[in-house]
Amino acid sequence: MREIVYLACSQCKNKNYTSTRDKKKSKDKLELRKYCPHCNTHTIHKEVK
C-alpha cells in the first residue's frame, strides 16, 4: 500500500511538496532535488513525518 509523505527543504525546513511511496519496497527515506519557492532555488528535499 502506498503512503503519502511530505518533502521538506533541507535548507529552510519548509514542507513544500507531497509525494507517495511504497513502504515495503523502499526502506530508506526519499530525497529529491526540487524547487523551493522560499529559498528561490533548487534544493534537496527530504522526507519528513
From TrEMBL:
Keyword Ribonucleoprotein applies = yes
Give one GO term, molecular function aspect. Answer: structural constituent of ribosome
Q: Which GO terms describe its cellular component?
A: cytoplasm; ribonucleoprotein complex; ribosome
Please cite one Gene Ontology biological process associated with this protein: translation
* InterPro entries on file: Ribosomal_bL33, Ribosomal_bL33_sf, Ribosomal_zn-bd
Annotated keywords: Ribonucleoprotein, Ribosomal protein
Q: Which family does it belong to?
A: Belongs to the bacterial ribosomal protein bL33 family.
The entry's protein name is: Large ribosomal subunit protein bL33
Q: Which organism is it from?
A: Desulfurella amilsii
